[in-house]
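Q: Sequence in, structure out?
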Amino acid sequence: MNFFEAVYKKVQEIPKGKVATYGDIAKAVGNSRMSRQVGWALHSNPQPKVIPCHRVVNREGRLSSAFRFGGVNIQKQLLEEEGVTVREDLTVDLSKFHHTFNENLN
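A: Exactly. Output:
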């Protein structure tokens, strides 16, 4: 499995109503220093209806201004439809909505 495939598999584990950070995904697939590459993988998402890249935010809980599949307002809408509250400043409260991965599931 290549890096992008590992990212897509891990993103599919984020449940509805939760978000993970680019760093969470990078760490979960084996390299905590590859957050930027996670972003590249998600920007290239071949199946946006299957791989829920809208559930990935930055380390501060901020939505992506470059969300490829319709822009930040679509990402906001998709998250809110799943029960995630998005603040006016386009951030998500990570203390409430953060999904953490089981460290043993690389």
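The first strand starts at residue 20 and ends at 21.
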